[in-house]
Amino acid sequence: MAAYVFLAPAVIGFTAFVLYPLFRSAYFALTSYNGLSDPEFIGLDNFRRMFTTDPSFWPSVRATLLLVVLYVPLSLAIGLALAVFCNQRMRGVSLLRTLCYLPVVLPVVATITLWKFVFNPQVGLANQVLDWLHLPTSEWLSGENSAMPSIVIVMLWSVGATMIIFLAALQAVPTELYEAARLDGAGPRTVFFRITLPLISPIMVLQVVLQMVTALQAFNQPKILSPDGLGGPGFSTRTLMLSIYGNGFPKLGQVSQFGYASAQVWVLFLVIVVVIAATARFSSIWTYSDHVS
Amino acid sequence: MTTSPDVTRAPTTAPTTAPPAKPRGRAVRTASWYAVALLISSVMILPILWMLTVALKGPSAVFEVPPRLLPHEFHFKNFIDGPKVIHFPRLLLNSVVITGLSVIGGVMTSMMAGYALARLRFPGRKVWFYVFVGSMLLPPVVGIIPLFQLFKDIGWYDTWLPLIVPAFLGGNPLFIFLARQYFLSIPHSIDEAAKVDGAGHVRIFVSVMLPITKPAWITMSILAFQMSWNDYLNPLIYLYSSEKWPLSVGMASFASQFAGQTPDWNLYMATNLLYMLPPLAVFFVAQRYFIQGLSALGTVNQR
């Protein structure tokens, strides 16, 4: 009896704020619901419109995938490299780590807005530094081709979050293994690829999944950084999340397309499910386990 | 938590140590390590230093070409004038109230659920555990539109309730998971002793368990604080009136007012600095918990 008292808030919340909206949004996706009149069932029309007539859908798929393809490998590689680098006995290493955490500690909106100014083409820090180094400057957020890479740079500035996780994984590797390898005369490269990497591979796989899921749902960065707040210039930074937001919660005076936005939500959701399932399926090949001799 | 290793302690291993090299080789390696460390540090710290200098500049100095690294006159008044632009004190209060209540609600309900799942026997225990863990994988965006409609229908649009009430009902599946893990690690003899003394579950939970599990709920509170202080999408959707905004929405709109070049950047930078202070303070006061929380978040990364 007592158990249900303790569990009640969580169960009520789960039912009302997770389960009910889940089914409800699946239903909305098949309707022309606009939040004002009752939902009208229209079958797969939303999806048909998405795949054929909506001029912004495929560009937003492209923008989302570009963000994933740029961000995920870079954040994992840089995060792991930083973790290895910060896992050495050097004077001042803890200060270096703290500096790497700093961007993670700051509020997300504060860092994003700060970078909006860093990337100002005329007087932002980014072009000032490039000028000083006599390198070519860039339009950053206002160029169609440079906008998404700029957003990825902003996201990578918080790579300390990934570093923390890899650092914890590295420190869980038994020291004896390294000592044994050293006695066998293995060089640092061999040690890294034959011991460190296999032993942290489960964490690696988990991070691949989580980073992809995070990147697929990027909203704050493109929303705040794009000059028009809608994923400009053009459709270059209009991620699926931004598209969903734009259709579901438009500017005042425009009708909310809850039905259509819900259909887009389900497309995004299915992509995420596929990513998780595929990674889980292949992880047995990548990850090291004890019974492999 | 208890399961994640403490990231803050000194490194125990040096994966890249090769057999003892000649002293000269070691000196070169040390020097190059510091060179790289300096490069990494500058990437991390430069934008923040730049923010500081611009925050202290006068309106005419912001757009000097070439820019000076140090302003020749310090305009501390920016820290007064900047916050006025977005009614900073009011938004700060909004943020504090919303965040404070979300933290209390989220941590409390998650601790309760974790306690039930770990220490009590009841039918459906396993099922609920899997349900909560499964809901961790569910992207928050899936329910966003029906939730919005639900809160609108019950008259909660343009109030703080949609940002606070869900925390009191279920909090966060990640927290439930962490709380359960922590409760599982506590020996059963402790509840037995309390039961012999005639304490009920509520009593055990409040007077025995909460003191023991302090590390768990401090870590969770810091995480919940971070999440709520960072939350931008939810207040953006639910709060129409700008006087009800938390700082995240206020700062984003402040920054977007500068579509062109206005000489008010210094005001924005000064305000942004103030917005960063609370999380920074929490970080430096409770660094260990903060980093443990971030490691735990690595299981459900939401940045």
TrEMBL record, chain A:
Keywords: Cell membrane, Membrane, Sugar transport, Transmembrane, Transmembrane helix, Transport. It comes from Streptomyces umbrinus. Belongs to the binding-protein-dependent transport system permease family. The keyword Hydrolase does not apply. Its main location: membrane. It comes from the Bacteria. Residues 61-279 form the ABC transmembrane type-1 domain. The chain crosses the membrane at residues 5-23, 63-86, 98-118, 147-170, 191-210, 258-280. This is ABC-type sugar transport system permease subunit. InterPro entries: ABC_transporter_permease, MetI-like, MetI-like_sf. The lineage of its organism: Bacteria, Bacillati, Actinomycetota, Actinomycetes, Kitasatosporales.
UniProtKB/TrEMBL annotation, chain B:
InterPro entries: MetI-like, MetI-like_sf. The chain crosses the membrane at residues 31-52, 91-115, 127-148, 160-183, 204-225, 265-286. It is found in: Cell membrane. The keyword Transmembrane applies. Residues 92-286 form the ABC transmembrane type-1 domain. It is a multi-pass membrane protein. Keywords: Cell membrane, Membrane, Sugar transport, Transmembrane, Transmembrane helix, Transport. Residues 1-24 are annotated as: Disordered. Belongs to the binding-protein-dependent transport system permease family. This is Multiple sugar transport system permease protein. It comes from Streptomyces umbrinus.
